[in-house]
Amino acid sequence: MQKLLEFAAAMLRRIRTRLWTTAIRGRFRSFGAGSVVEPLCALNYPDVVEVGERVHIREHAWINCVPRPDGGTVLRIGDGCYLGRFIHINAFSDVRIESDVMIADRVYIADTDHHYKDPETPIIHPGDQVKGPVLLKRGCWIGTGAVILPGVTVGKNAVVGPNAVLHKDVPDYGLAFGNPAKVTTRADAPK
Predict the structure, then answer these.
(1) 114-123 CB contacts, 8 Å cutoff, 24+ apart
(2) Which of 191, 129, 137, 134 has its CA nearest to residue 168?
(3) What is the DSSP letter of 168?
């Protein structure tokens, strides 16, 4: 009986995800075959987002985009990517996630930050400022709770550890752990 209930619950989750994906897929600039978006994601301006094939965006993701003045794509998600639960992406100019990138739960990625030049003005009032593009190269892995700040590139097959705060680039096959993140090279990296 327990196995039957588990099977029924899994089927209901799949049906709910298919229905949600079908309802929102047309809102994206492009949406590849085999990609799914689980229910209850917050999507601001998905029409400036390109989603590749076989992408899995988990429930409660917040994809917060702002259209560029030139009408270009603001967020690109490559083929075969996995974006975990409760991730938050602020893409106001240029965030690129290449193919086969795995992003764990509760990760924050942004190419923007708040204006805070006048110490007398509350930070909430002046608005946002684009600080620099973010690039997550093919095959990298971003651990649970990590923060990727504006202007950062994470290299091919690199690893960003859990809860790392990344304010500088990680080379191909690199490792980044800690707050602020310390960057090293993997011992098994190709020479």
Answers:
(1) none
(2) 134
(3) S
pTM above 0.85, yes or no: yes
The SS3 call for residue 18 is: helix
| Separation between Cα atoms, residue 57 and residue 28, nearest integer Å | 13
- Tokens standing for residue 178: 């800690």
Which entry of 56, 60, 88, 114 is annotated as an active-site residue? 114
Report, as an integer, the average pLDDT of 60-73.
Answer: 93
- Cβ contact 119:97 at 8 Å: no
Q: By the 8 A CB rule, do 35 and 21 touch?
A: yes
Active site residue 114: yes
Burial class (CB in 10 A: 0-12, 13-18, 19+), 51: buried
Nearest to 173 by CA among 191, 152, 151, 147: 191
Please name the amino acid found at residue 61: A
